[in-house]
Structures are given as C-alpha cells and as structure tokens.
Backbone:
C-alpha cells in the first residue's frame, strides 16, 4: 500500500474522533436550546467541560469498536454502502455498551435525550466525515495525485473496459503504465523493471506454471485478477473477491506488512532508532575520534545498496578500511580502482557461493576496523538510514547492485519491504549461512512478520554480536 493510501487510512481515525466530538457538542447545544428546554426542562447541572469529560470514554469505545468492525482496515476499494451499514451497527453496539455501563455502575445521568441525540448525531457525523474523506481522495485522483500505477494483462473485452474506465474515471485512482496480451516470463521481467503497484490479469485461463509465477510476483506488487473459474480454482486459498467498475475481481490478500502493519512497523523503527542513537552517542563519538586519529577522513563510509522496490540508496557505516581500499563513488577514481582490486580478492578469497561474497582475512581492514566489525559497531550509523525511511531495524539485509544483478527469479521478493539492520539471518548464524539459507529466512520473515517478531529479533541481536564471529 502506497503512502497516499496509508495517509488517508491513518487520517480516518482522528477524523472519526473529531466527528464524534462535534456530535457530542451538537447534542449538548441542542439539549440546551430554547425549544427543547421549553418542552423538557433541564434536570442535569454539569457544565460543558464536565460533559466533554463524560464524552471522552464513549468516544474511545466508539473508535475501538470501529477498529474491531474493520472500518480502519486497509482496503483499496471500499464499498461505502457496506461501510455505512457497519457504522450504523457498530454505533448501536457502542450505545448498548454505554447504556449498560450506566445501568450497572449506577451512574447518575439524568438526560436520556443527550444519550440518544449523541448516538444519532454521532452516526450522522461519522458518515459525513467519511464522505468528506472520499471526496478529498477523489479530487486528488482527478488532479493526478496518488494514482496507482497499474499494468493490465490480457487482450479481451474486460481489458478494454478497464483501460477505458481508468482513463475516463480518474476518481477510481488508477493510471495504466502498461498493457500486455499475455503473462509470460518475458512479461514478468519487464514488470520487475517497471514501477508498478498493481497488476490486473484478465485472461480467462492461467496455466499452473503461470499461476505460480504470479504468486511469487505478488509479493512485489499488489495483484488483482478478474474472477474466472480457472484462476480462482488455482489461487483461491489466498484470495478474496471484490468488484471493480462492475467486474468481479479476485484479489490476493495483502501481507501483514501492508496497511496498519506498515504503519506500526515504521513507528516502531523511528522511535527505537532515536532511542538507540541517544543511548550509544558516546560510542559513536569515541569511534569517530579513533577512526579520525588512525586513518583520517572520512569517518563515515557510504555504500550503495538496493532497497525497497529496487530503489538504490547509500547505507552509512563507520569506515573500517583504509581510504585507498574503500570502494564507491564517494572516493572518486580511487574508489573505482579499489573496486577492481576487490573483485580480484573476491575471486581468490571469497568463502561464500552465490551473488554475495565474504572475503576471508581481508587485508584492507584497519586494526580498529577489526574491532568495530567484531561487534558490528561499524553498522550503528545505519539507524540514521532507518530514521530517513531508507531502512528498517529488522528486515532482509541490503545488498549491492552488482550482487542483486545475479539474484534468481525468487529472490526479488525481498524488495517488497525495507531492508534491515538486523534480521532472522543475523540471529541465526549469518556467517555460517549460505546465500540461499539467508534468503529463505528473509522470505519467512516477510510471511510471518509481527511487531513481536521484530522486538524479539532486536533483543536477540546484541547477544549474538558478543559471540565470537569471523571478521571480513
């Protein structure tokens, strides 16, 4: 789910809270209006401030019930009629809970009018608030903001209908970036190079090999399919049906790292990174001074890596090599020459097979470099990458572009999430794992992600680092 959709998903919570607050204020004002007072004299004597204090917990209960009712779940195309029915039913449940609490706690609350008016106005205000959000999203779509980049696969009436609808009705939130008559291996390679967020398959028949390829590719792009017996029979275990411009679509369910999972993980990463950087600031300062005294500037080494959606970025590390041996554009001509020497070392001394390498007894590492690598102190600056949104605390390790170029067809799945400072591979004996074993752990992490898993991996990492490990 892209940031545009995440923003509106998160925004819905405070908007609902504000709408409920406005409903409470409106109910209070209506109760004290002249016409109502004449018909029913006011028996309560609490002020507006006291009333708002009373209204706080009912609002919280309302929001929590909305969450349990799935009104904040990440659904790309929600049916407003379905949401409206959920709002009415959940609001009734909230009213029942509040009423039962007042009865069983024997609370003195003399205005049933406020309770009834608050419930009616709360329901109406919530619906109006959600209509406003939908209107703002539709306006943004028409202006070209937040459109999902979609590829249509198929050469039939359904494909033509979708293409026409997406072009004429921008409020649907799509822009077509490619159309292919069939899904093949060649098409998949092209899709992996495009910036896409959704693939819509309109073929009436999908062979088993193609369906398996689609399942693998679904980890990189949120894929929807038109409903067909062949597709549904092959892939139904991980799908749900939703209409799109009147056409039944079979959709892969999002992973746990979509929607609120992505929001909570990002919040976890940001808060924890700030705390860690503050706690280890003396270590950062001391390490910087020692590197400066030992080999001079620069203290920080920037290494190009491939991250989320194959976007490249620079990881920050304390420099553990001599300047003349440091690779990358940061060091200009010297960096290019150092990269050539590194390739020779890889051929002679690499202890790992596959796309990634590990140079045994690396002669380029300084004396202090061995120390900071021994305890992974050189990687502490990567918490800055996390704060910038380029990395996560826990996730697949980012690799260099030249390593990624040799990935197998299943490996690009790791680009569906931000790379991490640590991960399952790091706490499972990274130095002793083969590349394939490391990738399997990364894929397992993506499938089984939870905030608790992130916490466990983070807590375990320091204990693993203090164990004896090889330094490269």
Residues:
């Amino acid at each position: 789910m892209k940031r545009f959709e995440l923003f509106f998903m998160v925004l819905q919570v405070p908007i609902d809270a504000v709408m409920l607050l406005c409903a409470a204020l409106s109910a209070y004002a209506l109760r004290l209006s002249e016409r109502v007072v004449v018909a029913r004299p006011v028996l309560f004597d609490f002020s507006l401030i006291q009333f708002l204090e009373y209204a706080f917990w009912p609002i919280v209960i309302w929001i929590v019930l909305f969450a349990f009712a799935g009104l904040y779940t990440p659904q790309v195309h929600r049916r407003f009629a379905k949401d409206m029915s959920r709002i009415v039913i959940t609001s009734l449940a909230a009213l029942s809970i509040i009423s039962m609490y007042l009865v069983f706690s024997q609370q003195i609350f003399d205005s049933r009018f406020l309770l009834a008016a608050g419930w009616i106005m709360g329901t109406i205000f919530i619906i109006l608030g959600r209509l406003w959000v939908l209107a703002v999203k539709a306006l943004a779509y028409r202006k070209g903001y937040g459109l999902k980049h979609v590829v249509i696969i198929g050469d039939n009436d359904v494909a033509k209908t979708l293409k026409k609808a997406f072009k004429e009705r921008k409020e649907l939130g799509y822009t077509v970036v490619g159309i292919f008559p069939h899904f093949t291996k060649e098409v998949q390679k092209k899709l992996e190079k495009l910036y896409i967020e959704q693939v819509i398959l309109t073929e009436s028949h999908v062979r088993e090999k193609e369906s398996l390829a689609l399942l693998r590719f679904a980890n990189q792009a949120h894929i929807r399919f038109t409903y067909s017996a062949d597709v549904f029979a092959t892939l139904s275990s991980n799908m749900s049906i939703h209409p799109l411009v009147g056409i039944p679509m079979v959709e892969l369910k999002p992973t746990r790292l979509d929607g609120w999972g992505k929001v909570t993980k990002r919040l976890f990463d940001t808060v924890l990174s700030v705390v860690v950087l503050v706690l280890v600031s003396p270590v950062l300062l001391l390490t910087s001074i020692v590197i400066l005294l030992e080999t001079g500037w620069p203290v920080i080494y920037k290494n190009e890596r491939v991250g989320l959606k194959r976007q490249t970025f620079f990881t920050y590390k304390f420099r553990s090599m001599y300047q003349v041996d440091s690779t990358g554009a940061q060091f200009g001509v010297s960096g290019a020459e150092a990269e050539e020497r590194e390739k020779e070392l890889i051929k002679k001394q690499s202890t790992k097979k596959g796309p990634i390498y590990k140079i045994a007894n690396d002669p380029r590492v300084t004396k202090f470099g061995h120390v900071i690598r021994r305890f992974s102190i050189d990687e502490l600056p990567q918490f800055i990458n996390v704060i910038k949104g380029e990395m996560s605390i826990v996730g697949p390790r980012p690799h260099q572009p030249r390593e990624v170029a040799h990935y197998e067809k299943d490996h690009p799945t790791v680009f569906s999430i931000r790379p991490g400072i640590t991960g399952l591979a790091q706490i499972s004996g990274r130095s002793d794992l083969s590349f394939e074993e490391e990738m399997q752990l990364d894929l397992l992490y993506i499938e089984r992600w939870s905030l608790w898993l992130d916490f466990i991996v983070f807590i375990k990492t320091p204990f693993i680092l203090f164990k004896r490990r090889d330094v490269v």
The chain has three domains: 3-142, 148-252, 260-465.
